[in-house]
Structure formats: C-alpha cells, structure tokens
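PROTOCOL LOG
Step 1. Enter all chains and additional molecules of the complex.
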Amino acid sequence: MREMTSIDPVTLNLWYPIVAIGDTKPDVAGTTMLLEQPIGFAVGVSGRAAAWSARPDLRAGDTVDASSVTGGLPVKTAYGYLWTSLGTPAADIFAIPQYAEPDRRNIAAASIGVNVSAPRAIENFLDMGHFPYVHTGILGIEPHTEVKEYDVEISVDGDEILATRCRFFQPMASTVAQGGADVEYVYRVPHPFCSVLYKSSPLDEKRMDVIAIFLQPMDQEHVRAHMMLSVLDDQNDDTFIRRFQLMIFGQDKPILENQFPKRLPLDPRAETPIRADKSAIAYRRWLSQKGITYGVIPVAA
Amino acid sequence: MSSHPWHPIAASHDLPFRHVFHGQLFGREFAVWRADDGYVNVWENRCLHRGVRLSIGVSDGRELKCQYHGWRYSNRTAGCTYIPAHPADAPARTITNRTFPAEERYGLVWSSLEEAAALPRVAGLDDANLLVLRGMPLNAPAALALAHLADYRFQPNNAIDSKEALVSIEAAEGFSIALRARSGSQETLAVFFVQPVDSSRSVIRGVLDRNAEGMVRNTILRHHNERLSALRDRVEREAAALPAAPPIEPVYESVAPELAEMPSLSASGRRAAITVQVARKWMTANDIAGFELRPIRGLLPTFQPGAHIDVHLPNGQIRQYSITNAPGETDSYTIGVKRERDSKGGSSCLHETVREGDLLAISEPRNNFPLRRDAVKTLFIAGGIGITPLIAMAQALSHMSLLSELHYFAQDETQLAFPERLATLGRALTSHLGLNPQATAAKLAELLVDYRPDMHAYLCGPAPMLEVARRIAAEKGWPDASVHFEYFKNTKAIDDSSSFEIALARSAVTLRVPAGSTILEVMRGNGIDMPSSCEQGACGTCVATVLEGEPDHQDVYLNDAEKRSGTKIMTCVSRACSARLVLDL
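Step 2. Run joint prediction.
Step 3. Record the structure below.
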C-alpha cells in the first residue's frame, strides 16, 4: 500500500469529474477513487446528484435517494459528467461556451483508466508531434512529420494556457476532400488536469469541433481520462464517434504507460524539449508557478 | 575474481535479430539491442525527449527509433540523428542517450552501472566450450539467492543418473559462486552469477564448463532446471517471510543545461578534437581515394547524413570532407578524396603522403547540409566527387524506405566512387556518364521538370553545374527552400576592399573591420570565439544573424531568398554594404 501523499491546496480545491451521467443508474450508488480517497456518488431520477466520502453503509449498487444524502461533498454536473471536490472549490467549472450551441452533438465519449499521472496525460493531449507515429494513418502519417511554429500564451486573467495557430498534416483531412491537408488546432488548458481542443470542422470551415479531456487523478500515477465531444457531425452515430475516440485513446495508452518517471518532471533539465514542445514547456512552468506538487516531480528547491 | 561492478543482464540468445530486450540492474532499466553489425548496445531505457521506454522502440538494425515521436538514436554512440518534428534542423549532436558498458562473454551479456575496467576472466570457463543454463528469475534479493546457491547440489554432465555427487565450493566472490560436482571420474564446474535486478528481484544465470550435444544436453538442462526451480521455490518462500524492501528508485541524470532549451549548434573555432587512424586507404574510383578513419580510443561522435569533418593534414592544411557512411555505421568515418589537378596541397597530400596506419586529427562532424526526411520524394543530384554527402543521404532515405532518386553525373564508369555503397541503392540510382555541359543542362532540365509540393532536391558538385541547376530549378518553379546546395568551394573572387563597423549586440562591443580583414578574423583578434570550418564561404559553419545593416554576401552557402532577406551572414567572407552591421553575437 502506497503511503498517503500530502495534497497541495490548489489540487485539493479543484473540481474533478468522477463519472459520466449517462453511465449511472438512477438512485443507485457507485464508487470510485479521487486523490487516493474512496468516494461514493449517485444521480437521482430528478437529475439531483450527490457525492460523499466512502461510507460502509453505502456500497456500490445500493439504492439511495440522491437528494437525501447529507454531509456529502460538493457536486456539479457539467459537460455530461458529475464533478466533485475534496476541498473548497471555486464557484464555477471553466467554461466551454460552444457546448451550449444548439446545433452541436455533445457526447460524453469515453472514460478510460490509464496508468500514468494526470499531467503526463495532459501533455500527450497537447502534443502534435506524435500523430504520425502513434495515430498512424488517422491524425498523421509519415513523412509529414513537421510541427510548424505555433503560438502559446498564458492568459493572466483567464488563468489558462492557450496554444493557437497549430497546424498539422492529417491524411484524411475531411470527408469531402480527397487526400491529406493541414488541419488547424487550438488548445486550451483551463484547469491543471483538463484540456480543451478545437479542431477545424470538416463540415463547416468557419467553425471548430471541440474535443475535451477531463482527468480524474485516482492517485499520483493513475488516472481515469474522461473524454467529451461537442461536434458538428450529423452523419455518424454516437457509437461510431465513441469507438473512434476509444481507438485514438487506446493508441496513446500504451505509450503513456511506458513513460518514466510516471509523474511529470517540472525541472527543465529532466527531459529534452524541442520547439514543438512549446505548449508543454508553458504547461510545466504554469504548474510550477501554481505550486502544484501532485502528480509531478517539483523542481528541487 | 575480485569484486567488480560487472553483472550479467541478459543471455546472448536474448538478443535475436532486431529485438530490443528490457534488462535491469539495481532498479535501473536498460534497452539492450544488437545492431546488424553485431555491436551490443546497452542504453538507459528512456528516450531523452519524453521519457518513453526505448525497449518498446523499433530497431532497424542501425538505429533505434522511439515509438512516441520517431526520434532516431544511432548504433554505438546513442546520439540522436533525426528529430522528425523539425525536419529542416540537424539535431544538436550532444543529444545523446546514456549508455552503459557492454561485454558479451560466457554466453551472457554483461554491463555495469559505472565505468569499469575490463570484465575479469572467470577461472575454469572457456568461451569456446560451455553450456549456458536458462536464466532463473526469482522474487528474492540477490544475497538470499547467493546464500542458497552455496548449498546447491547437482550432478556432473556425464553422470546425471549416477549416485549423488559431491559438490564443493571452488570460489565465491561478490555476486557469483563457482561449484564443482564430482562423481567417480566425472566432474563439472558450474559458475552461477546472480543478477541483482532490484532490491527484491534477481536472476540466477548459470554456466557449465563443458558443452554437450543432443539428448545428453537436454538431460543436463532438465536436471539443472528442476534443481534450480526447487531452489527458487525455497528462496522465494524465505524471501516472502522477510519484510519487503521498497524497489530501488533510479536517479535519472539531468540533461545538459544547453539542451533544456532547444539550442543552436555551438562548436567553436577550427578545433581538431579527435585523433583517428587511417584503417584503410583504397582507390574507390579513378583519382578518388577512400579513407576509412577509426578512432584511437572511445567512440566517434554521432554524425547525420550531410555532415562533414575538417581533416587537419600533416602539411598543416585543413580540408573539409563529407562523411559517406550509412546510418548506424558508427565504428569509423569513410571519406572520399578526389585528386585535384590544381591541388594546393590538400588532396595531393592525402593521396601521396597519408598511408594506412597514419594518425590524423579531425574535427567533430558538423552538419550544415541537413537532410529533411518529410519529403514525398527527394532528388539527389551529384556531380563527380559531389557524390560524398549525397551518398550518405541517399543511404539514409533508402534505409527508411522513403522515396528518393540519386542522379550521379560523371565522366565514365571508372569515375563512380563507392560502388559498393551505390549498389545498396538499387533502382534509386541512375548514372549519367560522359555528358558535356549542354547535355548536362538538358538532363538537369529533364530531372527538375516535375516539381510538386513537398518535394526536395539536394545538389552537390562543381560550381558551374550547380549554377546551371539553380537557374533551371528556379525556372521550373522550385522554391528556394526546396532546393539545397553544397559547394565544394567558393570560386567567386572575394572583394575585401570595403571597411565597416560591426556591433555585436549580445557582447555589447563595436569593432572595425578594415579592408583586407574578415569579420571572423577581427572577432577572433578580439577574443570572440566563433566556429568556422572552410573559411571560404562554402560550408555554412560561421553563420551569424544580422539584426541591422545590409550584408554584402560573397558566399555560396546561402540561397538567393536567404541573401535577399539580409538576416544571415557568413562571417568568413561576407562584408557590409552599409557602414555598420549589428550582429546577434
């Protein structure tokens, strides 16, 4: 049994997704793990939800009236998921305004366990250079391996990282056009363990599809990754879209699980960045500045 | 055998063709792989970029490719030769993975966590005649396995079914124990090396002093397998009762500070850092001598296709020669030297004076002619001895199965250098023999006719041929950025009559460059070090960034678009049109 870690206050006070609403049964308790704490949750028929530190009297599968649970943890529902916190969280979860646009398909696409720290998973989500090697023939293909110059900023007021002007060659860029072309991406990191990706829509050149990853750190080196899509797709059914996301994430999983150390090293000299890693460098600095120590190897004092 | 830091980490048969084996010693993981030339590489099991295990990477027999971003690391040196995310850049050659010593002996692969003197011999074992037992992994500390091995009982090879043999300890030292079994006139020496994998895991690797064939061999192997399995069960039972030690956390070395940020290459001066021996000298074509240069000690630095070295000649001259090697061919550098009719002493010295066995001083390889590997098709066009950088490039792409064509212009068949290397290119090679300048131009026009986006052309040859090719490429719509030239030398007359001022922005100094002196000379005279190589505006080593002012370009390295932009200058020959240049130095 691993020793209990002390959790830094920033990490403790964040909101975390713990389950897709669609994966719950009305008024039936479920259990999961968050920051090494066993917790329980339930979503009622009315949509009211509750989460609590694990209790011997409420086991997974027990019937419970979610609206009657007292002394529980704070809860919110957002983007198709149930969120909670072990500390004192901010009033709101970060905004994804596109989620509310009426013509979008919003899908809680997948929840998948990965044997890696949350920050390593975020870096992988921000990374384009691996497309030809890990998502071969789908998101990239050799010899089109160049990561072109892009821009990264940390917005002070929004307290988030923004990478813009990202372009990468995709072999089947669109269902209409034949052959490959550069696809444009915008990446946001609005939460230390969540990231939102905007990608040019093959159907509407003026708008972008949204793909988000929300990480639930079970402990420092194990996460559940929850995927959310908000897309302009009126052709494929939900099952197809879910399977596609599972396939992509299934390709990343064995790479992530073979990364060492599993926690993200914040010392700039721990690994060798290249210009393509600008967003990752910004992310590591941002985590350092925030004083996050969970899931990372902080810079030695 | 005294106490030493060597331990077996694998059996030789764990390294079959192109397999990457995951080894471990004291908690530290290794990626272990045998290159096609037989060299056993023992590397830290971690890509320097993002920490992904290299044991899940791909060995192509010459290089190991990381699964995550396709970084390629060279056989022997573990230096990174290519970063696909930035195809136009040559990776800083100091991006080198951590390597560990490797020795193959007694059917085992040995390594050490520290630099170590030679692996000692083990008394009684002869590489030519021994039987390696199957490695027996245990969930127990090495010390416990060693303690139990002292009581290991076994039969001599030819007396497996005889009455129980007498077993005595011949030697016990460090992590090994040698036992001798005697039964009647039969005896066998068994040496057991215990590999400390982690605090509570180990592998018993046994070697018998005599080989055997057929059924006898099977019987011996089965005998030891049964007895060692029983020993493992006893050791593991005892280990389970002990308090478990936490796994050893390996400490990963920090990368060099200059690698923490993506740096520009910074080698300085015209330094001859390496001494090599001429291992072989031969005529590879009419008037072209091949030289195979081997290091006196240690390893040669990692090279990339297109790289050149400075060769410091016995007569004091310095000449640049391209490395012709294929990827992963890292035990020597092979260069080709054409005897020049009007030689100023460089090529004639190499042809006439330098012999096999001689020592030469060379610089580290520099790559000012980097090869992109993200083209849908690559054209290589060589004129005469211009083949040398291009043959290295063509071999690299051919090895990666990327589409390329090598067009080799020469007078006749006897002028084609390195035929053995050319032969590996198969149908990618076309030679164009005996063409006069008009016919050469017509052929170039034919080759360059069909530009498509994501094509690249690399040309090296005599200046007149390159000038014609440059003009034709422009006419056929090739962008400057897609056509890459390397000149042997700068044949333009250098006009050094101007005088001007240079301001070095980072060093905050202003210097006057008088007529007859170069920027490079003036900077060196004022103690400012600057890398250089050919010093005639051909190789690109002494490039500086211009922040202000108008350069007077006199080099043949920068292309027209680069010259027009006015942002780079070759400090060995180029000067200023304006009264003042501000350089980012």
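Step 4. Note key features.
The first helix of chain B runs from residue 142 to 149.
The CA atoms of residues 447 and 510 of chain B lie 48 Å apart.
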